[in-house]
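Good day; I would like, with your permission, to put a structural problem before you. What I wish to show you is a protein chain and, alongside it, a tokenised description of its three-dimensional fold. Here, with my thanks, is the record as I have it:
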Amino acid sequence: MTTSTRSEPRHSPPLRRRRLSELLKELRAIDGRTCEAIGAAAGYSEATIFRLEAGTGARPQLATVTAIINAYGVTGEKRKEILDLARAGAQRGWWGKYKHIPNPYLKLIGLETEAEEIWNWESHVVAGWLQTPEYARAVLKAGAWKLSEYDRAQRIALRMERAERLLYGPEPVQLHVVLDESVLHRMVGGIETMRDQLTHLHEMAQLPNVRIQILPFSAGATPGAEPFTILTFKHRLDSEAVYVETRKTEVWFDEPMQVTDYRDTFTQSVKTACSEADSLRLISAHAETLTNRIGRVPSARTTGLDKEQ
């Protein structure tokens, strides 16, 4: 990544669209009319009003939003706020240049771009923001979805850029990750890839905005939970959201009770996990063990393993 990438402001068109939908819902709640009635007054269908309030479908059209707020009689600063959100929401995010990326993952990228905090629990692999390119390649190769080399390269490049944009710059996100200790033992991509990944993990933990904790085997029984990510935001209209990964699907939750359940699970994991200092020592020890093992393992060149089968 370039220095300019790090200095670019974190701007999320999907989040602007979500704020726009919340404001439009607030306006109609105050006004008291139905979607059908507002649509008729603005010259659009009931479905158009519903889609804008739901924040779904195509990017908002400025003319449509203008007609709707005219129907509500909105003026002054509120009008400017809404039209600014419509303009910003109509833009494409920086991730639009990447192809063949699943929609739920794109939603994560879009919302996390302006998150204030990210809380992440991982039970099997290193969190994506903290992965090296080679480790990411090995994870994608082993995934449930069979990807072409092109698609795999696209996802690796996206993963690296999102980390660069989120974790560096003038207002980096606050990232708190809890990893199960098995993640340190699982030999993803081979011994050298794993050693490099653990070294990188240790380096990333030195960033002031990154916290990494290891949930040790000695913790015993813990709440069994699939990998999940909690996003929190500063703006009053941006409700917290939870992204949950399963083997072949991704699910979003944003109802307060659902979010609270995952918050409680993460908080319990934090309490049970090693301290940040002890976690760093554990990561460092595993990296050193792998380094020592590499020194004792014959290279592929000397054993002939690099020859094509």
Observations:
- Residues 276-296 form the longest helix (21 residues).
- The first strand starts at residue 117 and ends at 122.
